[in-house]
# Entry
Amino acid sequence: MPPTLVGKHGFVQDGLLFIHKETHYELGVTPLALLWKDMQCSRFFLETEDGTSVSQQQVATLSCHKDRTVRCLEGQVLGTLPEAFVVMQGFEDGDLVKMALEGVEIATERVKAIHFVSKASKSRVLADTWSKIAFQHQARTNCALNAEKFHQFLVVQQQQQPLSSSSSSSSCSSSSACTSSCYSFSSCSSALDSDMGSAQQTFETKEP
# Structure
């Protein structure tokens, strides 16, 4: 990994935050701001609840809705809660809950099963994005892009940039694919949620 990415920063490093430099931003999910991690630049490559231990199952924070569905931030429905359970827990529209996930299917953006773990920490204000869920699944199955391959990709992109810039405009559209020269990056710190509860309950997942 390049030495400039592993130097002393004065805080706990937790990945790289890529920001597109040539576009405007508004609140919401966007591919123009990306958080990337691997084991060399993050102590928390696999998400952890207490900063030390990693749960055997992948856990995600999802939002509950009045139709009893639970969804990630982009709105994909990942499961449905029984009405009796919703009443018993006192869930309201928009409440955040922690769910253990089984059978994450990245191509179809679905999961085979979800298990209730606990209500989310009050410090959480948003559900996890599907991209985070997919990234964590790849990390747990050793399919995530590592630092060496990522650095090789950046080198190739930088080598190709002079050629591409001579034949096209130097500005990048927010809807088009952009080379690495359009991004700036910095180290970012980690925020941890409260401890995960131990009780779990299984619910039906979204029908195809």
Notes: The longest strand covers residues 96-105.
